[in-house]
Write a structure and sequence with these properties.
The chain is α+β, with helices and mostly antiparallel strands. Helix content is 26%, strand content 40%. The longest helix has 13 residues. It starts with a strand and ends with a strand.
């Protein structure tokens, strides 16, 4: 499974390192994190990381294979 998680604002290099398994691109005041997600537990872990870092998730969606 591949997912895209959009968060508000641009991530610093330090914050981006919290998501080593995901690629990122910055656009229009948002950062898009995307890449493979192994299972549901991994997905919830990514969302928990966002929350613990104070990131506001704007959108999350599963990408076509």
């Amino acid at each position: 499974m591949r997912y895209e998680i959009r968060v508000e604002g641009h991530l610093s290099e330090t914050l981006a390192k919290a998501f080593p398994e995901l690629s990122r691109v910055e656009m229009a005041g948002q950062t898009v994190l995307y890449g493979p997600v192994v299972d549901e537990a991994h997905l919830y872990g990514l969302l928990a990381r966002c929350q613990s870092l104070g990131l506001r998730v704007v959108e999350m969606r599963r990408l076509p294979e």
